[in-house]
Fold Aldehyde dehydrogenase 9 family member A1.
Amino acid sequence: APGAPLQPLRLPCSPSGSPAAPGPPLQPLRLPSSSRDFHLIYSLFKTCPGRVLCKLPCSGEKEVDLAVQSAKSAFKIWSQMSGMERCRVMLEAARIIREQREEIATMETINNGKSIFEARVDIDISWQCLEYYAGLAGSLAGEHIQLPGGSFGYTRREPLGVCVGIGAWNYPFQIACWKSGPALACGNAMVFKPSPFTPISVVRLAEIFTEAGVPKGLFNVVQGGAATGQFLCQHPDVAKISFTGSVPTGMKIMEMAAKGIKPVTLELGGKSPLIIFSDADLENAVKGALMANFLTQGEVCCNGTRVFVERKILDTFTKEVVKRTQKIKIGDPLLEDTRMGALINRPHLNRVQGFIKQAKEQGAEVLCGGDLYVPDDQKLKNGYYMRPCVLGNCKDDMTCVKEEIFGPVMAILPFDTEEEVVERANATKFGLAGGVFTRDIQKAHRVVAALKAGMCFINNYNVSPVELPFGGYKSSGFGRENGRAAIEYYSQLKTVCVEMGDVESVF
Ligand SMILES: NC(=O)C1=CN([C@@H]2O[C@H](COP(=O)(O)OP(=O)(O)OC[C@H]3O[C@@H](n4cnc5c(N)ncnc54)[C@H](O)[C@@H]3O)[C@@H](O)[C@H]2O)C=CC1
Ligand SMILES: C[N+](C)(C)CCCC(=O)O
């Protein structure tokens, strides 16, 4: 009922995989697997945001095994199809997503809390990803290598088998497409586990793949937290793990993969630098800084949260950034003009607020935001909203500058020279992204070449064309998603050596 205390999405097991506190008995599985169910969930959300949308039992060892076995059967069929045949099915999946963009974006907004405006962009990136890899599927090829005496060798690019995808909660649908796109194009099957905080939209993706014509079981979804993830990673029939999430979990995944000699892709956290030189186009630099910090309530791994500003323009830049940040429309994410929705859950909101409190204690100045936002709409008053925050007077050794906050908190740091800023920008355990704003093209390329980060932007930030590889250096992980590069991580190379003469034996 309106006004009742809001609850986070309740799942029968906690995100860490430990059993849930005793509560009402679990409901039978009620996945939002058809449009009809979807509308039911939607209407619940509209009247009571923050309330339970559905209850999903965690997949245990048995369900994980069933999912892997069914993916294995589908793999036999899919991997034997030609690239062009796979291309057609994937194009159909992309077409369905494009056609149902509005419905899926709405579902994603409900799933995650991000604005519908942004969710639409996520869905566009998702179908573009499938379309891109559909295109590549038909052109996957090996090499032909001439050897002496007419002998020759050739290489075949072969799929790995059943791949596992484990996703974070910030881009649920998009992460699933970034993983399944290249995986399926290469002829693999995939079992995907979304974050227990955002379990819904990936189920729709599985339905779409089926509607598009993939063999049944080729893309399976299992639900749950750490325990379910572990069953997946330790399953002997799983050939590869692609993980998006935090550094501590990434380490555990790598350990499990090591025990089974399984390749892994790790897309982990970041604390990326954005460098604004005084010769930059100020209007674009300010827009870039906002793009680098406030998409999806700041819950973006590659955000440029350390904004280094050349001292000459510090005041002008800061004033403008603060002015624009204060204008960001926060509130009901389903409203057309909302640009910042709700954070993922109460504990995360508290954590973000904790970082801001600590920043103040350590001497940073809150230039705007950082407090809770209470929408006028009574039904939303207990939602997990906060005002986007800009911190001034920051120093490199402050916690807010060193640790990933994963919320709408920008730290502004002045600098004086190029050499100094490059050194400070690289002084982090992370290396996911980095950006530079300047009109000097030599300086722009020199600085990005010196940045120890996998994804660098010049005069923009957080755009994500699917054609470009994405992934981290250092503790931000390894392996790449998007672009041709991802093919390397979802296929293996077989070399065939062909003798055209006689065997010259040494014996
Ligand atoms: N580099 C990238 O592309 C991205 C990185 N991230 C990072 O993810 C973090 C936030 O996402 P969270 O969902 O909170 O991360 P998380 O690491 O807590 O969870 C990620 C996924 O791993 C699963 N998981 C947890 N413990 C596991 C275990 N022991 N074995 C197998 N699976 C397990 C979770 O259920 C979830 O599906 C941030 O640090 C952020 O930087 C988020 C999005 C993109
Ligand atoms: C789409 N983009 C570039 C804003 C973010 C993608 C990485 C992530 O999943 O956090």
Notes: The CA atoms of residues 165 and 192 lie 5 Å apart. The longest strand covers residues 152-159.
